[in-house]
Design goal:
CATH superfamily of the largest domain: FAD/NAD(P)-binding domain
Strand content: 15-25%
Distance between the termini: 25 Å
Helix content: 25-40%
Number of strands: 21
Structural class: alpha/beta
Number of domains: 3
Radius of gyration: 24 Å
Mean pLDDT: 94
Shape: globular
Number of helices: 16
Low-confidence stretches: 1-12, 547-556
Bound molecules: flavin-adenine dinucleotide, NADP nicotinamide-adenine-dinucleotide phosphate
CATH topology of the largest domain: FAD/NAD(P)-binding domain
CATH class of the largest domain: Alpha Beta
């Protein structure tokens, strides 16, 4: 083996020096990657900007934060013991419990010795002479690593839009994605929430219960399906745990890697009565499986319209004031922006202390010292909550000064939108892996199986390189170009590109409009497996400088 130090004992307490691998980020992805590095016998260091592990679940502590994929699925499956012994208390686990789970994982698999908290990676520079990455951190350390794995998260770079006057605001302001650990007491406060995506939908009903008055500033109304959350049914838990591996395996065969109880029928070939019954059953069951009601919902506008109208009717039935109900009723395609799952969202607008303020036609003009102004009217506020989302999928990666071959930055390489092979690697950046990177199913799946699949693929790839004496791996341009075309082609056959979603980068001014996730977990996994089985088809495998030979094993 050329340069990888197998069975290295290096577990230094000091972040500088040489290691086999650096991992960035201590969420679900980084923690499991570190565990697999340990399994390979490699020395690894994990850097995390936050003061604890947990990633998403460390940062997003706003009222009501919880997963919207059911707990028994929104969890790791790599360890049968772990999935058997951990007990989730609710159908959809709250943020605090998921954070507790990830801390348990860090302890159970002895990960903490290699984790450096409060440490932001600022740069990663590839040196062609040594075929190693130099990683520079906010604590002034420099580490040299053979492999660099970005586990920086798809939704980890918060987006606070530019509002004139924000700095003048005399009250308190918060972003849902960076919530104070001690919590926020809104009692007797006039609160404004900007944003009605998943974070807004989850927090608005709870903030409304505390605040003296809540103003919801809505630019685009959102489809949301009731969660019907509650204590986890012990019978359901027992049945799933009795056959957990099978349950997981079946779910991996689903389009989004999650049990949506897919119906193969077409909405358009079903009678209106049957359609209504199907939607009603799913509304009563609750959550994201609503999208599995008919096979053509995400492919045919006409089919989608039937689901959209069903939800609009529900809104009209829940919200007493017909004008407010119409303002809350979305007109876009259901599922085009991420479908939300709520507890009492629409009903919140029946409260006398809640006001819906539409900012679609007339945007928020400015933030003033005492509130914010829309259409010339000032809304006086003690606190503003930005539920305005994230610079998704590329934000955290591009904040790091990543430089590959020839000193070319990732920012330059992705200037017209991210270009990857399988979402896991990019031409010109050898031995740099991105977990759930753009071009992989990632955010269009239950993210935990997607993360596990990427981590396992990367670990297998590194093992293969070690076994065969390869020092570097990077995609061929032809394979990358073909993959990017394929990702676009698949997206183009669906309704996804028809709205201004963060999947397209449309929420960030100036961001190239490119559909970033790959649609379809099973075909994606098949492709990754085929690539590996063919000796990493579509990748260039390069021997160490003493080995001298570049081997392109096969073409993508
Ligand atoms: P993250 O959990 O985002 O972790 C990335 C970590 O990298 C962060 O801790 C960050 O601080 C760190 N980091 C980033 N850049 C640097 C740097 N330069 N230096 C050092 N550290 C860095 N997905 C689902 O499938 N189902 C759900 O129900 C669901 N609910 C969600 C709810 C919320 C509120 C949000 C925001 C997202 C949700 N997601 C959900 C998506 C969620 O992000 C993933 O499920 C998963 O937690 C991602 O794990 P990760 O490890 O890839 O990234
Ligand atoms: P988001 O879905 O991007 O929503 C942001 C909201 O802010 C949108 O309503 C957006 O309006 C609004 N907004 C942005 N800029 C604005 C401006 N200048 N003026 C007025 N409104 C503005 O972000 P998010 O709610 O944080 O969710 C992001 C993703 O994280 C979700 O899609 C999901 O994948 C995940 N998440 C999941 C859960 C869960 O239930 N488990 C909870 C939270 C987050 P427009 O729509 O008009 O752009």
């Amino acid at each position: 083996m050329a340069e990888v130090q197998v069975n290295s004992m290096e577990t230094s307490q000091k972040p500088g020096g040489n290691v086999d691998a650096v991992i960035v980020g201590a969420g679900f992805a980084g923690l499991y990657m570190l565990h697999r590095m340990h399994g390979l016998g490699l020395s690894a260091r994990l850097f995390e900007a936050g003061s604890s592990v947990g990633g998403t679940w460390f940062w997003n502590r706003y009222p009501g934060a919880r997963c919207d994929v059911e707990s028994l699925e929104y969890s790791y499956q790599f360890s049968e013991e772990l999935q058997q012994e951990w007990v989730w208390t609710e159908r959809y686990a709250p943020q605090s419990e998921i954070l507790q789970y990830l801390n348990h994982v860090a302890d159970r698999f002895a990960l903490r010795r290699d984790i450096y908290l409060n440490t932001r990676v600022q740069a990663a520079i590839f040196d062609e002479a040594t075929q190693r990455w130099t990683i520079e951190t906010s604590t002034g350390d420099r580490v040299s690593a053979k492999f660099c794995v970005m586990a920086t998260g798809c939704l980890s770079s918060t987006n606070t839009p530019h509002f004139t006057g924000l700095e003048r605001f005399a009250g308190s302001s918060y972003h849902t994605g960076n919530w104070p650990h001690e919590g926020v007491d809104f009692t007797d406060k006039r609160v404004g929430v900007i944003g009605t995506g998943s974070s807004g939908i989850q927090s608005i009903p709870l903030i409304a219960q505390q605040a003296s008055h809540l103003f919801v500033f809505q630019r685009t109304p959102t489809y949301t399906i009731p969660a019907h959350n509650g204590p986890l049914d012990s019978e359901v838990e027992r049945a799933i745990k009795a056959n957990y591996a099978n349950f997981r395996e079946q779910n991996k065969q689903m389009l989004f890697g999650v049990d949506f109880q897919y119906n193969e029928a077409s909405a358009l070939e079903t009678t209106p009565e049957e359609r209504q019954r199907e939607y009603e059953e799913r509304w009563t069951y609750g959550g994201l499986p609503f999208l599995g009601a008919f096979a053509d919902l995400l492919f045919s506008k006409e089919a989608n319209d039937t689901a959209a109208e069903f939800v609009r009717e529900k809104i009209r039935a829940i919200v007493h004031d017909p004008t407010i109900a119409e303002q809350l009723a979305p007109r876009t395609v259901v599922g085009c922006k991420r479908l939300c799952v709520d507890t009492g969202y629409y009903d919140t607008f029946n409260r006398s202390n809640v006001t819906l303020v539409e900012v679609s036609d007339s945007p928020i003009e400015e933030i003033t010292e005492h509130g914010l102004r829309v259409k010339g009217k000032e809304y006086e506020l003690d606190a503003i909550v930005f539920a305005t989302g994230f610079d998704a999928m590329t934000g955290s990666l591009l904040k790091i000064d990543i430089r590959g071959k020839g000193g070319r930055s990732l920012k330059e390489a992705w200037a017209e939108g991210p270009r990857t092979y399988l979402g896991v690697a990019t031409v010109g950046f050898p031995n740099l892996f991105t977990i759930t990177g753009p071009g992989s199913p990632s955010v269009l799946t239950n993210m935990i199986p997607s993360i596990e699949q990427h981590v396992e693929w990367i670990a297998d790839c590194i093992r293969y390189m070690c076994d065969h004496g390869f020092a570097c791996i990077e995609p061929t341009l032809a394979a990358q170009d073909a993959w990017v075309d394929h990702v676009n082609e698949v997206a183009g056959a669906t309704l996804y590109p028809t709205c201004n979603s963060w999947y397209l980068g449309a929420n960030i001014p100036g961001k190239p409009r490119v559909f970033m996730p790959y649609i379809g977990f099973p075909p994606y996994v098949q492709k990754c497996n085929d690539v590996a089985a063919k000796g990493y088809a579509g990748f260039l495998l390069i021997r160490g400088h003493d080995g001298e030979r570049e081997v392109e094993l096969s073409r993508g």
